[in-house]
Structures are given as C-alpha cells and as structure tokens.
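Ticket opened by: R.M.
Priority: normal
Category: complex prediction / small molecule

The reporter submitted a protein together with adenosine-5'-diphosphate and asked that the result be attached to this ticket for the collaborator who will pick it up next week. Submitted input follows.
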Amino acid sequence: MEKSYIISLDQGTTSSRALLIDEKGEIIQIEQEEFQQIYPKSGWVEHDPQDILNSQLRVLHKILEHITFPLNKVKAIGITNQRETTIVWDCITGKPVYNAIVWQDKRTSDYCETLKKRKLTKYIRKNTGLVIDSYFSGTKINWILENIAGTKEKAEKGELRFGTVDSWLIWNLTKGEHHVTDYTNASRTLMYNINTLSWDKKLLKELEIPISMLPKVKPSSSIFGEFEYNGTKIPIASILGDQQAALFGQACLKKGDAKNTYGTGCFLLMNTGKKPQYSKNGLLTTIAWGLNGEVKYAIEGSIFIAGAAVQWLRDEMKVIESARHSEKIALDLEVENPVYVVPAFAGLGAPYWDMYARGAIFGLTRDTGAKHVTKATLDSLAYQTRDILDAMQADSGIELKKLKVDGGASANNYLMQFQSNILNKSVVRPKVVESTAMGAAYMAGITVGLWTEKDVIESKTVDRVFNSEISKKQRKKLYKGWKKAVKRTMNWEIN
Ligand code: ADP
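Result attached by the on-call engineer:
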C-alpha cells in the first residue's frame, strides 16, 4: 500500500492535540497544548474561543512543519471535540461575541427549571433523546442572546453563528467558508431532532434561537471543507463528538457493543443500532455516527465521580502518593474488604438521580486503615459502572457481551479485574488507548477511501482481557453490600 497519512485533531476540555497517523493506523507523532480554564463565578466555566483555536492551530502546525514527505500524502483531517461547549460569533467580523460556555457550566440551571415547568420534558426526550439540563448547548445560546448586549438584534438580522467547537474550528480552518457540524454534535444541542435529522422548529421557538444561527448538519463521515497549507488542500473528512469518537475508535460498530472510558468521570456508550432506544432510567439517547448513508444510535450513561475519587484519595485524604499507587495497595490487600466507599460527592446520577445524596464510607471496624478505603474507592468505580450497565441492558433489551475500556484509570489492573468480577463479563483493554483521536482518524480515513470498517475492527490489538474470577454467590453478596451502602447515602442533605 502506498504511504498515506491522516491527521487527527482532538480538541478536548483541557487541551488541544494533533496526531499524525500512517496508513497502518500507527501513531507517528503527537503534539499537545493545554489552555486556560476560566471560572468567572461559582458554577461557571468558560474558555476563550481564540485560545481553543490558536492552541489547536499551533499543534496542527507543529505536525505539518515536521513533515518531510509530500504534503499530498496527508489524505484527510479528522476532528473530534469536547461536546456541548457553545460558541457564538459574528459572521461578518469572525469574532466571538462571548467566551465559549463549557459543557460543565451550570449558569442556565434555573432557566432549565422553567423549561421543565413549560412541560417540555417528554417532548425533549422523545425528539432530542436528552434530558433538560444546563449541560447541553441550547440553553447556553439562549443565555448569550439574553445577556450580551446587542446579540439578540444581530441574531435576528442573521449576523450571528452558533457552533460547538468542531463548527468553530472548521469555520476558521476554511476561512469562513463552511458553517457545518455533524450528527453527533448536533444531537447534544437540545435542538436537534434525532428522528427526523433536522433542527427542531418547536424547540428553536421555545429557546428563542433563530435558525439562521445554526450550522448545516452532515453525516460524521463527510467532506466538511478543505484546509489549505502551503498551497496544498487537505479535506476535512470527519467530525465526531469525543465520546462517540471513542466508541468508533474502540470498534464498537455492532449493536450491543459498548465501551467505558475511565477518566475524571466515566462515560459509557452502547451502540444500539439503527433505531434510537429510549431509557426509563435517565440515560441519554444520542447519535453514534452517520456513515455510509446510515445513522447509528447509542445509549449513554455517565458517572460524575470516577477517577476524581482517586484524586480525592491523593489530594484530600492524602492516603496515596499517586493515582497509580492505588493499584499496588489494592493488590497487596488480599483479605476480603468489608468497606464500601460511595463517592456521591456531587449527588448521585443515573440510575439513582438524587442530588441530595452525599459521599460516605461504610463498614468501618477497629482494624480499618487507609488501604481498605483505597481499595473500596477503586471498587466504587466498578460498582457505579455495573449500576449503569444494568440500566442500559434493561433499557435497550440488549445483553452486553463484553466491555471495552479506555481512559486513564483503565490502566489499573486491580480495577479492571474487579470490574470483570462484578459484571461477570469480559473486560477488554486495547493496546492503543487513544480511542478518541483514533476514532476521528478512522472515520476520516473511511471517508476518503483509505480504510473500511473492517480495518477499524482489525486495528484493535488487545492488551489484556480480564475475566471474572469470583463465584455467582460472591458477586451477589458484594453487589448487595454496594446497593445497601448507596441507599444509606440518599437524601442526606435535606434530612
Ligand atoms: P480526563 O480525560 O478526564 O482528564 P484521563 O483519561 O486522563 O482523564 O484519566 C485521569 C483520571 O484517571 C484521573 O482522575 C486519575 O485519578 C485517574 N487515574 C489515572 N491513572 C490511574 C490508575 N492507575 N488507577 C486509578 N486511577 C487512575
């Protein structure tokens, strides 16, 4: 095969990355730059859109400047991005009218309550697959138009553009020629109808957002525009939101395939095939990707506190030196551990949905020490994953065969073994844990004919498979203890 390359741009919440990948799917070069997080008030999180763009351009240029082969061997650029983060800019000057409002930002929580009072919950779930929450873009756009002087008038005159980060990057990479996004990003805005694949007129009216602000939505595998560098034009051939990119990068291409990313939080997504599946447990229904004229859907659950609980052990409790150190402690403690840690630091998410729950440690005895608490904290990541997966299987009617894992904490062998024990499923850790960036790269490569879906499946070399090593009886006893512990953390704040 002729030497060819793909560049993947991975625009994350804390850093911008660019990767050069060859036709065998090997990563040749990675560049990364962090950028500033802005916290103007409690609960508010912003980024400077220019910072996002400049850091992304700098890492891209670092890759391009190092290239010694003819530039036309770079067949495509793929983009994956932090989802939901909202940018509004003036299409005449190209300047943002306000900072990017980041997905974590809670400023529109009260406004979300008014949407609930307007009885939109059911309509939104059915048509967008989402729950009413400040997390998603729609209410963030509304906030900008309501609070930044002059923006409403400009929006009505058709002079403003909205985009998630992918749209903002492409607008700039194509010098203002293309205002576009893909199905996955659109499906996180609270305004996109995931059944009809179009902007939802009723919701635009409710949110008071003119349709002229919105990007054209295309399948994730599409030519979104071209980026020109030293006279060579490189097609931008994929866009995927970060979690969907990880699902694709993990080769979860078939109905029932699922992945869990263990980072600060955990994100679990299951491919549910060609039809959206709706949840009774507060999980989200979302578009997995659009490829080869087909749309695939996913069901998604997230855990707010996962790796963050390990950070808590290190930074607040000061019982471990590093996150990695937790593995050795847990493996050294061979006796049965009667301790449970429920890290409900910010309440409990799916499937419990109790914002008044608070964290707790249970089962303390005279000989309980830091090592028991450390081990129990790792266990809590696995138990929370089981809670979500049980709900997912019930909602989708699909039985999970194995769980593919990635993210920082998936390096922990104790945790992965315990995960398999508690799920009674194989847990599969790939060699390359760069699932997100690779997902966007593979999607772009498929668009330009460099790869097929079969190549994505074959690219997944396994680092380790964990299989359950405990009996049904032990599993039942352990999980029962967890459920009991969770129950006792509930309604804490208001009692
Ligand atoms: P994010 O993308 O959310 O920043 P990463 O995928 O980089 O997260 O993973 C970092 C998180 O994983 C941190 O919260 C850290 O505490 C946790 N972590 C990293 N390594 C380990 C490990 N070996 N064992 C347990 N937790 C770990």
